[in-house]
Each structure stands twice: as C-alpha cells, then as structure tokens.
C-alpha cells in the first residue's frame, strides 16, 4: 500500500489554503479537514447562545454542549461541517461569524477542544489539514508543511468575490478590515499564534494559477513519498 502522510497548510486569512488543501486531497485520495471551520462553528454556537466568552465557566459549559463532525456532501464531493447534527457549512462563512472568530480562537479552552479532535483525525494519516497552527501545534511532526501567503490586495479581492455571491451588500472595505483584523489577532495571540514552522515551505501564490499552485505542492509531495 502507498505510504500515507500528513500534510499541513497554514497561512494568512484568505490566501487560498482551502483551495490548495482540497486540490491535494482530491489528487492524492486523502481526507481534507478545514480546521478553521471548527473555530467558526464554535463561534456560531457562542453567538447563538449569547455565550459570554470572557467568562471561562460559560465557555466550559458551552463547549460541553458542542459536537462537531464533518460529512462528505455527495453532490459536491466536499466535506462539510456539522454543529450538533446541523449542517452549518454555509452559515459559518458569514461576516457575522468572521468578525468574532479570531477572538474566540484566542481562548485556550476552545483551542484545546479543537486541537484534541484535529489530532484524532490525523491518526490514520492520509490527511490534508489547513489552518493557522497545524504545522506548529497540531501536527508538529507532519511529513509535509506548507505555509501560504499572498498579497493583501489579492486576498481581499478573492474573499470579496466569494462573499459577494452570497451577500451583495458586503463591501470591499468590510472584507479588508476583517482580514487585517483577523491576521493581527491570529499572529499576536498567546496560544499557538500564526507563524511559519521552521520546517515549513513557503508558498506565495499571489501570481500563481490554481493549476500552478497544485503542481508546486504535488512536487513537494512526490519528494516525501
Ligand atoms: O479561510 P480563512 O482564511 O478566512 O479562515 P479560516 O481558516 O476559516 O479560519 C477562521 C479563523 O479561525 C482564523 O482567522 C483564526 O482566528 C481561527 N483559526 C485558528 O485559530 N486556528 C486554526 N487552526 C484555524 C483557524
């Protein structure tokens, strides 16, 4: 049987991590896990329940009520996240969640909750996981680590186009402010801040097509297999 590895993709907001992770998982027959979806789903739960996340007791209680799982949507072939058995894949992409998720993701108890589940998903290898701390904290011994970046203007345009389809009221300025604020909070938090792992390979896809970025990553995979 072919050797299976763990591939981690970390990087700045909206620089195409999930696109590359999905491409790689499809090309290799691996499972793709969107760790950001877990933080977004937890945030959605906190918003709905009016959880005061500055209060550790309320956070603990809320986390005990949350069950997350991923399921493959047969129509799209993509895995989608479920929060207590409800498919929230589309709801969690809303700006309302995006505006709070980085604050929620600074909470140590929230990170412990998500990281424990992420690690158990990696036990069988053959996984591509994207996020902020996957190569540094979740799988520090992963065989292949990629750290992605892209020009901020390009990242804002990409995310704006994605969000505009669902909500034509969204503005470029709102999207830019959200990406910049999340990048700041994510890279300055105390627990597992966003940073490039020492053994991660940098991929700047500002001027790459999605075919070119897949080609770049597949060459890296080939060296590891
Ligand atoms: O896709 P995008 O770049 O917008 O972000 P995401 O992957 O959906 O992650 C949303 C937020 O979750 C990030 O801005 C982080 O605050 C948090 N996150 C994290 O702290 N650790 C991870 N491994 C993944 C996401």
3D structure, described in words:
The chain has 225 residues and is α/β, with parallel strands linked by helices. It has a single domain (6-212), classed as P-loop containing nucleotide triphosphate hydrolases (Rossmann fold). Helices cover 50% and strands 17% of the residues. It contains 9 helices and 8 strands. It has helices at 17-28, 35-49, 56-64, 95-104, 108-121, 134-138, 152-166, 172-188, 210-224, and strands at residues 6-11, 31-34, 68-73, 78-83, 86-87, 127-131, 144-149, 201-204. A hairpin with a 4-residue loop joins strand 3 and strand 4 (78-83). The longest helix has 17 residues, at 172-188. It is globular, with a radius of gyration of 17 Å. The termini are close together. The chain binds cytidine-5'-diphosphate. Cytidine-5'-diphosphate (CDP) is lined by residues 13-14, 18, 35-36, 39-40, 101-102, 105, 131-134, 182, 186.
């Amino acid at each position: 049987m072919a050797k299976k590895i763990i591939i981690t993709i970390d990087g700045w907001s909206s620089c195409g991590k999930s696109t590359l992770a999905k491409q790689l998982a499809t090309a290799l027959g691996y499972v793709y896990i969107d760790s950001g979806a877990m933080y977004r789903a937890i945030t959605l739960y906190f918003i709905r329940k009016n959880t005061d996340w500055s209060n550790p007791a309320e956070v603990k209680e809320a986390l005990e009520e949350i069950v997350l799982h991923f399921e493959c949507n047969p129509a799209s072939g993509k895995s989608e996240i479920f929060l207590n058995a409800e498919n929230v894949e589309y709801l969690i992409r809303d700006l309302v969640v995006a505006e709070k998720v980085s604050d929620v993701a600074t909470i140590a108890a929230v990170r412990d909750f998500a990281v424990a589940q992420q690690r158990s998903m990696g036990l069988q290898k053959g996984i591509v996981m994207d996020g902020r701390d996957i190569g540094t904290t979740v799988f520090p011994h992963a065989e292949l680590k990629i750290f992605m970046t892209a020009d901020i203007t390009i990242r804002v345009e990409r995310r704006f186009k994605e969000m505009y389809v669902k909500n034509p009221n969204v503005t470029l300025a709102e999207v830019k402010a959200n990406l910049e604020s999340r990048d700041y909070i994510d890279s300055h938090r105390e627990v597992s801040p966003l940073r490039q792992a020492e053994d991660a390979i940098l991929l700047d896809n500002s001027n790459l097509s999605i075919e070119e970025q897949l080609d770049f990553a597949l060459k890296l995979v080939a060296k590891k297999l």
